């Protein structure tokens, strides 16, 4: 599975968000939910297309695809030097595929701010500096290694040395994240091999007041920073979300309608995390179950089959595919077949978002 780590300074609303996210999982019947550890939760990825498919197929059950969220508390200035829970904090971030960075954009006298002022730019900088310092150390170690091998003429070492000296180290020395650099494919592959913290895809979650969902100056600051470092922004009121999640289904629908919201803001967070990771969904649909599966954008049919079971990938023969729109327009598999919209695809086929797939395989 794919894992998104929730980070941020103390008292910005991380736990409130995490609790709302994990509570969101319990409500939906038949959706797999589990709490792995107190601070990790598996959350279904909301996808309205799945209900549309199910209306046609009428399966016994529906299973959503999921994403894991981890609440990573404990960051203080000095973490990169091992202060506080610093080392553990950095190790936890290293294990994630993406970072959701919660930033306080709400005012509330009753909630103490660690540096006594609401200042999103300063807050972001504290965290990004710690992460950049940790990366700086990794990069300096790496440079010491490749200096020798580069002298010996090793091509990859020469490229790595150039990348470190010309791009990564200057960026990190200014406490700027590596994800903000423009890199070519070769450089990206080299960066990947370094497992840096600041190269992880990042989503800023601007946590606002109920009144601050629009026209919030703090949010504009967050957006400005995100734009300079290839990061995304989601604006949400975590407190409101934690209240929405406590409501019964019908009350919730009414409440959302009153607020002029189509769905809980949490859904946007989950989907943003999903998109950040360059993930997409395909479906399997039969009378037993309609199920959503996650694959990387660009995955081939056998790779997609491997998400269900490695045997499906090894013994892959063909994929029967109906595009999502065709499936809906022609009211299911038979209709799509009659309309000539049912395809038999081979092992080179690149799976498209929303595809309804049935795999043929040898065991
Ligand atoms: P964490 O330390 O980052 O995990 O922060 P918490 O989630 O524990 O939140 C700290 C305090 O801020 C709690 O008292 C929350 O109820 C409060 N809080 C969180 N989000 C909001 C919000 O959007 N508005 C207001 N007014 N308070 C919030």
From TrEMBL:
Domain OBG-type G per the UniProt entry, residue ranges: 2-256
Pfam families recorded: MMR_HSR1, YchF-GTPase_C
This protein's GO CC annotations: cytoplasm
A Gene Ontology molecular function term of the record: GTP binding
Domain TGS: 278-361
Binding locations of ATP: 11-16
Keyword check for DNA repair: no
Keywords: ATP-binding, Magnesium, Metal-binding, Nucleotide-binding
Keyword Transcription regulation: no
Highest taxon listed in the record's lineage: Bacteria
Cofactor(s) of this protein: Mg(2+)
Function summary: ATPase that binds to both the 70S ribosome and the 50S ribosomal subunit in a nucleotide-independent manner.
Family: Belongs to the TRAFAC class OBG-HflX-like GTPase superfamily. OBG GTPase family. YchF/OLA1 subfamily.
UniProt-listed NCBIfam families: redox-regulated ATPase YchF
Name listed for the protein in its UniProt record: Ribosome-binding ATPase YchF
Record organism: Congregibacter litoralis KT71
Gene giving rise to this polypeptide: ychF
């Amino acid at each position: 599975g794919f894992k998104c780590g929730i980070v941020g300074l103390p008292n910005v609303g991380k736990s409130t968000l995490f609790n709302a996210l994990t509570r969101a999982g319990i409500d939906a019947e038949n959706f797999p939910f589990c709490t792995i550890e107190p601070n990790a939760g598996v959350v279904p990825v909301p996808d309205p297309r799945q209900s549309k498919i199910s209306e046609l197929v009428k399966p016994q059950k529906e299973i959503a695809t999921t994403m894991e969220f981890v609440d990573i508390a404990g960051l203080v200035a000095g973490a990169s030097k091992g202060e506080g829970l610093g080392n553990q904090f950095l190790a936890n971030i290293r294990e994630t595929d993406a970072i959701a960075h919660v930033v306080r954009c709400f005012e509330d006298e009753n909630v103490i701010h660690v540096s006594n002022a609401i200042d999103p730019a300063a807050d972001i900088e504290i965290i990004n500096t710690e992460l950049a310092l940790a990366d700086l150390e990794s990069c300096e170690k790496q440079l010491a290694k490749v200096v020798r091998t580069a002298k010996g003429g090793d091509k990859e070492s020469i490229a790595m040395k150039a990348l470190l000296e010309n791009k990564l180290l200057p960026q990190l020395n200014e406490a700027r994240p590596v994800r903000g650099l423009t890199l070519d494919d070769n450089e990206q592959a080299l960066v990947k091999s370094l497992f840096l913290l600041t190269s992880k895809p990042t989503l800023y979650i601007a946590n606002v007041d109920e009144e601050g969902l629009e026209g919030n100056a703090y949010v504009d600051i967050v957006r400005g920073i995100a734009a300079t470092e290839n990061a995304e922004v989601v604006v949400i009121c975590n407190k409101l979300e934690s209240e929405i999640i406590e409501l019964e289904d019908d009350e919730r629908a009414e409440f959302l309608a009153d607020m002029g919201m189509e769905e809980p803001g949490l859904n946007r967070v989950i989907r943003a995390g999903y998109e950040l990771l360059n993930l997409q969904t395909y479906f399997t649909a039969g009378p037993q179950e309609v199920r959503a599966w996650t694959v990387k954008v660009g995955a081939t049919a056998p790779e997609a089959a491997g998400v269900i079971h490695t045997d499906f990938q090894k013994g892959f023969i063909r994929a029967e595919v109906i595009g999502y729109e065709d499936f809906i327009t022609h009211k299911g598999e038979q209709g799509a077949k009659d309309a000539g919209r049912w395809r038999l695809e081979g092992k080179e086929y690149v799976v498209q978002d929303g595809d309804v797939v049935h795999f043929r395989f040898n065991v």
